[in-house]
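Why does residue order matter? Because the sequence determines the fold. Keep that principle in mind as you read this record.
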Amino acid sequence: MEFYSTNDQFLIYLGAILALVIGVIIIKKVASCLIKTVVGLIVLAILAYVFYTSMM
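Structure:
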């Protein structure tokens, strides 16, 4: 089991939030509604995985 320092956790969350914001901007400019939904669910699943693994 690995323990992350506060700085490591901050960088993980900062990267996840940045990826989410950039993803939303790109999706809004290019994709249709169905693709937005699918990509949004994928991004949420990835963020949930990152959150879960950073807490374990």
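The radius of gyration is 13 Å.
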